Every structure is written in C-alpha cells, then in structure tokens.
Amino acid sequence: MSVSPVELRRHGAISLVTIDHPPVNALSAAVVAGLRAAVDAFADDAASRALVIGCAGRTFVAGADIAEFALPSFSAAPLNELLARIEALEKIVVATMHGYAFGGGLELALACHHRVATRETQFAFPEVSLGLIPGSLGTQRLPRLVGAARALDLITTGRRIDATAALDAHLIDGVHDGAPLAHGIDVAQALVAAHATPRRTRALASDAGGLPPAFFVEARARASPAYPAHAAAVDAVAASALPFAEGERVEAAAFEALRRSPQARALQHLFFARRRAGRVPGLDPAARARTVRTVGIVGGGTMGRGIAMSFLNAGIPVTLVESTRDAMERAAAGIRDTYAGSVARGKLAADDAERRAALLRVETDDAALADRDLVIEAVYEDLPLKERVLARLGRTCKPGATIASNTSTLDLDVLARATDRPADVVGMHFFSPAHVMRLLEIVRGAATAPDVLLTAIDVARTLGKLPVVAGVCYGFIGNRMLEPYLRETEFLLLEGATPDAIDTAMEAFGMAMGPCRMLDMAGIDVGANVVMAQQVAGRLPADPAYRVVVRRLFDAGRLGQKSGAGYYRYEGRRATPDPAVPALIGELARNLGVAQRTAIDGSEIVERLLFPLVNEGARILEEGIASRASDLDVVWTAGYGFPDYRGGPMLHADTLGLAQLVGGLAAYGRARGDAFGYWTPSNLLVRLAQMNRPLASWEAGS
Ligand SMILES: NC(=O)c1ccc[n+]([C@@H]2O[C@H](COP(=O)([O-])OP(=O)(O)OC[C@H]3O[C@@H](n4cnc5c(N)ncnc54)[C@H](O)[C@@H]3O)[C@@H](O)[C@H]2O)c1
Questions:
Q1: Among protein residues, the one whose CA lies closest to atom 20 of ligand 1
Q2: pTM of the full predicted structure?
Q3: Domain count, the chain
C-alpha cells in the first residue's frame, strides 16, 4: 500500500492527480516527490491525453510547508524543477482549485496550462508576511499572466483576492460552482476535444519592460527598509522583463538572501509563536472547552463596550448589565455610535451594523445573566466593588457557566474566591480598544478548572483574537514587562533626555509609538493611578525617584491627549514638544539630586528601555507565569507595538546575544548603581548566556 500523499488515477483519456495531505495540502518534500512520480507516469502513459491536478479535503495547496523551508537545508530546487517539468509537458495540464491557492500552491497552478477554480477560492502570495518573496517562480510567472503592476501589488501586500477578481485579472481561466475534481476532468476533456495545445506561462511576455521607468524606481523607494522582502519583490517583478531564465536567477538569489535574513527569521518565529500561543502544556488531555453560545458582560464602560462588540461582531448575543438605567443607555448608545461611525467611514455595511446591534440586550439587573454561558465583568478597577460583583455572579450564574474578569491589576485568585466557585473563574484581559486589539491575555488562577481555561482560549479564537495564557502576578505578561520600560523612560527624562528624544529613539528602533506618546494616548491619569495604587499597596521600591514624572504631570493636570497636554502639547492628535515639560522635569531632578546631561544618545535610550524589559520577561518565565518565551513575543508584538520584523523582545535578545545582554545589564548596574535590583540579571538569562542557548525558544521544562 502506498503512503504517498499523491494519487494518480485515469478517467478515460484524462489522468487525475489528487494531493491528499491534511490539513492544508502543503507542499512538503513528500508531496513534491509524489507529484514528480505522478507527472512522470502521466508523461509515459500514451493513452492519457491530459492531466488534472487537484486536491482532496477543504482546500487546494495552501502553501509550502513553512516548517520545512525554515530549515537551513531547504532548497526550492526540487519544486522549481517539478514546475518546469509540468510546464514543459506536451500534453495539457489543468489546475483545479478550491479553498485557498496560496504561495507555493498558486505557483503550482501558475505552472499549469489552464486554471479553474470554484467561486469561493481565494488566491494570495503571503510570503512577505514571512519575510520572503515567492521562491518558485511566482515573481516571474504572475506578471506574465496578470501584468507587472498587479503582480507587484499582490506580492508586496500579500492581499487575498477571490475567484471573480482572479478571473478578471486573467490569473485563472474559469470559475464554477461544481465539484473541483469532476469539473477539472470536464475542462480537460473539453480542451482535448478542442485540440488545445499547452499555453505555457513562461512563454508569455511580461509587460514589466513597457511600464514607465519611474514605476519600479518609485516602488522601490516606497519599500520599507525594515522589510527587505518588499524591495526584493520589486526587483524580482522588474526582472520579469528579462528572459525567463535570467528572471529566475534574480528571484532565486533574492529568495535565498531573504531566507537567511534576520527579518525572515523574526517573522517566521512569530508565525509559529502565534500558533503555539494558547496551547497549554500539562493540561488534562480529556478536558474540553465548554460551549459558549451566549455571553453576559457586567460594566459598559470603555472596556465593557469594546468586549461586547467583539462578541457581537462574531455573531454571539450579548446581555450587558450596567449599574443604572442611565449608564445602561449610554453604553447601548456608545456601541450604536461606534457602529454608525464604521458605517459612515465605509468600513461596515449598514445591514451588518444593524444585525450586530440587534444581538445586544442591555439590563440593570444581574438576574438577566442567569442563563448565560460566559459572563465577563468589566466594572471599575476597584477590589471591594469587583468582589461584590463577583460574589453576586457566583450566586446568579448557572452551574457550568464560565465567569471571567477583565481586571488589569487585581489578584485573580482573590476575585475567584469571592464567587465561591473559583474553579469556574478565569481572567480575560482584553486590550483597549477591545473590539480592535487582537491580543487577549488569558489569566489562569490557582483554582481555574482546565475546561474553564480551555473555554477562555476557545472563545478568544472564536473572536479572532490571539490568546496567550499567563499566571497570576501583578501586570500579567504585558504590563509587567512594561513597568521597567516606563521606569527607565522616566529615569532618562530625569537625566535630561526629552520626551521627543526618547520617542524618536524607540520609534527608530521600530516601536509603533514611543513610550511618552503612548502614555499621552492612554492617559497620564491612567498611568499615574497605577503607580499610586502600587504605592498604597506598598509595592513600590524605596526609591524616591521611582515614576515621579508621571505623577508630577498628573498633579499638574496634564492628562495627555485628552486634556491637550501631557508629555507633549496637542492640537487635536498632533503632538508638539512643550518646553514646560523639560522645565518641570528639571525641577524634579534638582529636588531629587539627579544630575542632568545634555546629550543622551539613541543607543543608550534603546538599551536602557529594552534590557530591563527582556530581563523582566526572563523573570516571568522563571516564575512560571508564562510557559514559553515565544508567548512574550506574541504579547509584545500584538499588544505593545514591538516591531514584528525583530520578532519580539525575546528573539531580539537572542539577536543581540544573551552574553552581551547580561554584560550590558551588569554595566548599567555599575554605572547607575543597583540599590533596587533594577539591573540584576535574572538567573535564567545568566544560565542561558553561559550555556550559549537561545532565549526565544525556551519552554517550561526544556
Ligand atoms: N481601559 C483600559 O485600557 C483597560 C484595559 C484592560 C483592562 N481594563 C480593565 O477593565 C475594567 C473596566 O475598565 P474601563 O476602562 O472599561 O472602565 P470604565 O470606567 O470605562 O467603565 C467601568 C464601567 O463599570 C460600570 N459599573 C460600575 N459598577 C458597576 C456595577 N456594580 N454593575 C454594573 N456596572 C458597573 C460603570 O458604570 C462604568 O460604565 C477594569 O477592571 C480595568 O482595569 C481596562
């Protein structure tokens, strides 16, 4: 019995190759070898007049096997030779597609002589999202079929197009609503009957040479240096004007260089990191997520509304409970207004908005939550209030319901106990705006039942979010790592760096937004309140300079964007440096006896902010708050604007070198003093640096 994922059968005069390699028929080495054997057999079969290539299961070939092509030993040569062989066949080859024809799958189709697809099929070259360009002649064949301008757009954006658009673009030759394999055979029979001859994509002319010379120059100028795949795509598509073999060499050289680039490594690290996130090691394998068909939310403020919309957008009915009739109506109106805004901006169809809003029910009585499968509380961040709310939910919610808290800073175990059924309780820490941000930290309490944890993870996926599991600690993963980052921001400000110098350095590193601009956007009051609450809880270091700046700005009524002034002055959202801020900080520095310097260079700013952040990440791992380092990279790239092309802080640490990082922490400790342990390297970092082992692939128990 053959174990090949590729099967060849003859139907009269037509041969059919079926790829059956679940889940997505990826072009693994075994699939390529199987296809090669099938193509050879077809070529030798004198009674067979045409070949149809299609797939079993839910999709056509959805891409290469990413795990394989990240290997140092990977070579595109076997696939490229196979595609050249298919294209050169004297008998007609038809690709029949359904589901997704992505990346290597689309390249396979491009090498066939005729392409048909079911109406729901989607087409894309997603390689750029992995730091690559198509490496099996996609950059050469696509422009020959659809034109260089459209090809460049598809390759540099990774955008998906549907079958209708693909037909309009001449990417495919036919769209149908039938069964993919049977239809492919019909098409092949018709082509044979019409005495059609192979139409080879490589023999077509690309229009790349006919475009105005400025086209590629400008496209290259627009390509971000942070993503070298973009410029490489421009060069490769431009090379489609050359003879095919020369364009092939350009693509191959660029693909190989990109494959070894740090950006490709980072983006592929994140691809796998996102897939792993939300898998919980050591969980009872028999545990299953509970079914969630209806949801309740307590508190209809900023977060409650955003959380409600996340569910409504996914088609899940929500009952939202507020404390007063007034607040209840404000919440409902706020949600309707947000939808109306999306409709006005053309982002949402009016009937979709209506359908979503119709799934919302608002109430003032918790009793309305009694039959909900999942209830999430998002009331003020106030322990006694949350304890009261959770105690009531513990009594009101039906047996088997999952009870979640959106707390950012409170102890989930304390909240869970308040319900008197702590096994049903889990943290679901959404990020603001909750209906937009993909990150969702799932907080596992000491008593959280395995099926409750799985329920939260499952719900996150249903909402299209990225779940990352954290244990109970102050700030969970993201905000805990943010703390040393903001702490050092403020120390640098006291030493004389301006908010603009700090933000510029961090944005040049690749952060979506520097820390001062970020705090102004989130609200200085929010930042200051966190510090003050920590002070009340006795958790601040005995350092008089600790986070004094944000508290001083708060006292001065500079609340950030919303009050028109924070670290910057604002006209609308436009920030301009405000000389009042260095003056105010200078006074603080004098009072604290901090010596100010005139010039603090960008590299010191980046190191001072990132070294302690990575160090805190390593402590989180040591303490078992997260079970793998790559989860931290998911949190920081998805929730905090850390550049994806650097792979997240943990991978960035490996790129720097852990020995370098540990040495850097020690050097800053010596230069600045380490009375409060700010610079003490974590044991895990020191150990991995000594063993010369990477941090980003660290997992609990590894
Ligand atoms: N704002 C953020 O960026 C953010 C991010 C993550 C998590 N959180 C957490 O989300 C929670 C809510 O924060 P927010 O920013 O939405 O606050 P918010 O002040 O905007 O909203 C809180 C809402 O709770 C309502 N409320 C108070 N007591 C209630 C009760 N007994 N029953 C029903 N409703 C009641 C209030 O009327 C108010 O509308 C907090 O725990 C906060 O820490 C906030």
A1: 301
A2: 0.93
A3: 4
